[in-house]
Amino acid sequence: MNQFILKSIIRKLSSVPKPIQIEQPKELDSLIKTLELELRSNEPAVLKSFCKFAVTAGNHFGLESKSWSLKKPVHERYTVLKSIHINKKHRVQYEKRTYFSFVQFNKLTGSTADTLLEYVERNLPESVALKATKVEVRELPDHLT
Amino acid sequence: MLNLTRNLELSFRKIDKPLYKAYCNASQGKHDEFKALNIRNVKDHSHSKRSVKKTQVLPPRTNQMAVDQDWGSVWPGPRSFHPATVPLPIRQGYTEKGAPPPDKYANAELMKIPNFLHLTPPVIKRQCEALKQFCTPWPKALDTMEKINKHFPIEVTSSDYCYSGPSIRDPMARIVTLRFNLKSLNLDDRAKDKFLRLVGDRYNKETDLVTIVADRCPLRKQNMDYVMYLLTALYHESKKIEPWEELKSQADMEYYDWTKHASKTNVEDIFKCKFEEIPGIDKFSDAVSEYMNEGENEYTIKKYGEAVRTLLQLPFSKEITNKPL
User: Fold this and answer.
1) CB–CB of B128 and A140 under 8 A?
2) Please, what are the domains in chain B?
3) ipTM here
4) In total, how many domains does chain A have?
5) Each residue's pLDDT tens digit, B197-227
6) For residue B198, which of B207, B183, B210, B180 has the smallest C-alpha distance?
7) Pick from A119, A131, A135: which is nearest to B157 by CB?
8) Closest approach of chain B CAs to the CA of A76, in angstroms?
9) DSSP label at residue B16
10) Within 10 A of B292 (CB to CB), how many other CB atoms are there?
C-alpha cells in the first residue's frame, strides 16, 4: 500500500512527459510539371556523358526526358599587358569557355523529383555545375474560388 | 656517513630485484658494452650491405578478369582512371604526326578527365530499380496540358543550385516565381480591369499570363508565402468596390463600349426593335468600337463603311470599293 502511494507521488512529480501520439496531417505529394537541369562545364565531353546518364536515369524512372545543348560556348576573355607596366602593344589574352547543356523531365510527382535530383546530384562529376528549376503546379487556394 | 649510504644500498639490493629495477634510473640490459670508435673508417661488414627490398609488382588485374564479370562491383564508385583495373585498350593524348596516341599505362591525360566508368547502363538500371520504391507515379487522369492547366492553374517556379563552391547556399535559390492564367481567377470585367491596373507590366497580353517574382525575403519559404499573399491581396483588392469608383462616368472610360453609347440607341430607333434582333449588327458594332478605340485609319474606315452598307442593305458601289482610299 505504501509503495503504491509512493509510486503515484513519484509519477506526479516526474518531469518525463507521457508519450502522446500527435496526429500529423498527411503531407500531400506535390505535382511538378517540368524539372529542368541546366548544366555548365568547361569540358564538353564530360557534359555529354552526364546528359546521357541523366536521360537514361529519367527513362528508367519512367519519365519523359530529353536533353539538348547550346552549340556555342560562352567565352569569357580578359586581355592584359604582357609586361606589367610598359609595352602597351604587347598583350596576352586569357579565356574561359563555359559549355551549356540542358536536361528536361516532364510530369513528375514531388517524391520522384526529390529522388531523381538526389541521385543525379550525387553523381555530378567534378567541374560540372547544376541548376535545377522546378515548375510546380498547384490548385487555386480555397479562398480565391 | 659513507657507511650509512653503503648499508642502505646493500639493503636495497636485498629487496626484490624486479621492484628495485622498476624504480632504478640506470639503463637496463647491456650497459657494460660500449661501441668501439672507428677512427680509420674501416667498413664494418655487418652494417655495410643493406639488402635492397624489391617491391613486388603484380601483373595487371585485367589479366585475371572473367569476361562475364559484374563490372559494377569492380568499379563501384567515382574514381580516377586506373589502367590495371580497366580492361579496355584505351588510348588518349597528343603525339607527333603518324604515331598513335599513348596507351593507357602511365597516361596522365586519362587520369585528368572525370570518367563515368561507375555509371554504365546496367549499373544505372540497377540503381534506378532500387530507387523506384521512393517514387510515386504521376496521376493518370492528368495526361494532357489542358487538364493540368484547368485543375492546377497556378505555377510556382524555383531553382536549386549544386556546384563546387565555398558555400553550399546560393542566394539565387530564394527567388520564387508565380505564374497563372488570368482567366482562371474568374473575375468580372470591372474587377479584371482593376486587377490589370494593379498588376501593371506583370501581365502578358498575348499569353494572358500574370507573372509575379518575389525575391525580397532571404528564404524561399518566406518568398513563397509572400507570393501567395500577393495573389490573395490582388484578388480581393480587385473585387472590392471603393465609393469613388462609383463616380466613374462614360467620359472617364478608357475604351469605347458600343452598348453604352448613342450609336446603339440610334440604330435601335431606325430599326424600331432591340439591337440583338437586327441582322449584321455584330459586324457594325465591332466596326464602330474598333473605329473609336483604334482611331481613324484606312482599315477602320473601310470596315466601318462596309458594316454600314451591310446593315442598311445598300449595294456596294464599285467605284467606291475599287478606289484606293
Assistant:
1) no
2) 72-135 (no CATH), 145-245 (3.30.160.20), 255-322 (no CATH)
3) 0.80
4) 1
5) 999 999 999 999 999 999 999 999 999 999 9
6) B210
7) A135
8) 19
9) -
10) 17
